[in-house]
Amino acid sequence: MMKKEHKVVIQEGDALSVTDMQLDFLPGGALSVPGGDRLIPVMNRVIELFHSRKRPVFFSRDWHPRDHISFKERGGPWPSHCVADTPGAAFHPDLKVPEGAVIVSKADRRDSEEYSTLYARDTKGNTEKELLEKRGTRRLFVAGLATDYCVLNTVVEALRAGIDTYVLTDAVCAVDVNPGDGERALEKMREMGAKLTTTGDLT
Ligand code: VGL
Ligand code: ZN
């Protein structure tokens, strides 16, 4: 029998968003996503693929003030994590961030949570959405952490902005505060119109 092909050919107008591959979200970190470190080799391959095709690659980072509203000390759900300019907020050292990649930061305001990376900002204050538009992005491929929070909210916002959005299911990982949260988030994204694909289907 012929194997069913689901190849996705990378083309002009495509961009990759690498979500929050920071030490605090990886095993040993303050808000560790179980198995998150297994994404690093697959992430490096997909980053290299987009980079070699001259497609833009965005790297987001959670970039909290030390008294952020999401922290337990302030009644929020999370232990303190990804405090701006601390070691836990750094990208994993094995992550290959290419020259010229755009880094955007989010959730850096004391009193508001921000899971989506779409309005995360570069050093000049441009949002990821503005930068995507400037580069004529029609399809956004989303990878990284965590499936049930930042990936989910980024995908929802990207779809809302009219971008054709793909989730790279082998390059995302869930916090799973409740078992199955990651799977439910993927199903929700699919229902909302996102396409689920894998890095192995990209060509
Ligand atoms: C995230 C929990 C808290 C995420 C950020 O990047 O998915 N999750 N802050
Ligand atoms: Zn956070």
Secondary-structure-derived class? alpha/beta
Mean pLDDT: 96
DSSP summary, beta strand count: 6
Separate helix tally: 4
The molecules bound to the chains, other than polymers, are: pyrazine-2-carboxylic acid, zinc ion
Shape: globular
End-to-end Cα distance, whole Å, is 22 Å
Low-confidence stretches: none
Quaternary structure state of the chains depicted: single chain
Mind describing the biggest β-sheet? Answer: 6 strands, parallel
Main sheet: strand order: 3-2-1-4-5-6
Q: What value does the Rg take, in angstroms?
A: 16 Å
**Helix-strand sequence:** EHEEHEHEHE
Topology (elements, then pairings):
Layout: E1 14-19, H1 39-52, E2 57-62, E3 102-106, H2 128-134, E4 139-145, H3 147-160, E5 164-173, H4 181-191, E6 195-197
Pyrazine-2-carboxylic acid (VGL) binds next to helix 3.
Q: What this model shows, in words?
A:
By secondary structure, this protein is an alpha/beta fold. Helix content is 23%, strand content 18%. It has 4 helices and 6 strands; from the N terminus they run βαββαβαβαβ. It has a 6-stranded parallel β-sheet with strand order 3-2-1-4-5-6, sandwiched between helices. Helix 3 (147-160) packs parallel to helix 4. The protein is globular. The mean pLDDT is 96. Bound molecules: pyrazine-2-carboxylic acid and zinc ion (ZN). Pyrazine-2-carboxylic acid binds at residues 20, 62, 70, 78, 115, 145-146, 149-150. Residues 20, 62, 70, 78, 115, 145-146, 149-150 line the site of pyrazine-2-carboxylic acid.
